[in-house]
Amino acid sequence: MVRRYSAGIAVATAVLVAGTGATYAVGTNAAPPAARVAVASAAQPSTQLPSRAQIAALFDRWNAALATGDPNRVADLYTPDAVLLPTLSTIRTDRAGIVDYFRTFLQSKPVGRIQQRVITVLGPTSAVDTGLYQFTLTNQDGTKSTVDARYTFVYALRGGSWLIVSHHSSKVPTG
């Protein structure tokens, strides 16, 4: 049986990106580069469950990363072992493949909008956001088009940050 919870989660951890000296605050839209990270201040694992609003905000963070046009910034939101099953491409199972996919996808300046969603909190360190989203794409000639798709994001709390473990997207069938 799966239960939905709305308890808040607070993790006060910062990460130091190895070799860069940069510190990123957990819970912000700034995701550390996909470099090895060392925990600067360890927090006890939380037993509190994330709220549905916290999980919903992860899509907003991902959509904001798309808006940067930087495929590495988008890939930073995925775990190193993440699986991406995109709408119009082959399965991607490593960072290089995910970056490659977004390098092409971002050329159309996608802007996503959730149309319908169901969020299921599986525990203090995992959640699923699934539903329907629509992308507005800008074609090379400046005209816009839309694509309706089904999606599933599986998130895991790793090293104090919520990251995408699995992302599946497929076009909504017509008819």
From TrEMBL:
Residues 1-25 form the signal peptide. Residues 52-173 form the Calcium/calmodulin-dependent protein kinase II association-domain domain. The keyword Signal applies. Keywords: Signal. It comes from the Bacteria. InterPro entries: Ca/CaM-dep_prot_kinase-assoc, NTF2-like_dom_sf, Steroid_delta5-4_isomerase, UCP028470_steroid_isom-rel. GO terms for molecular function: calcium/calmodulin-dependent protein kinase activity; calmodulin binding. It holds the Pfam family CaMKII_AD. SUPFAM superfamilies: NTF2-like. This is Uncharacterized protein (TIGR02246 family). The lineage of its organism: Bacteria, Bacillati, Actinomycetota, Actinomycetes, Kitasatosporales.
